[in-house]
User: What shape does this take?
Amino acid sequence: MIPPQNKKMKKILIVDDEPDILELLSYNLQKEGFETSGLASGEEVLRTVNEEEYNLIILAWRCLVRSKAVSAPLRGSAAAS
Assistant: This one.
């Protein structure tokens, strides 16, 4: 899967708390022509998505669940349902 040459490079944010997975995904996506950024925690995601724009976010759900800043609002909305 190679992005079209005439379009701006797509930015992908990868979120996982396992460095090997971040490295593997980043390497393979960059090899295919994508620009990637990697983060290891939910708190970092909240800061980053407010500062940068991404075309795609690949997210390990456990990173958000472990993050108190992110999981508290998620638990609150689930309890209200």
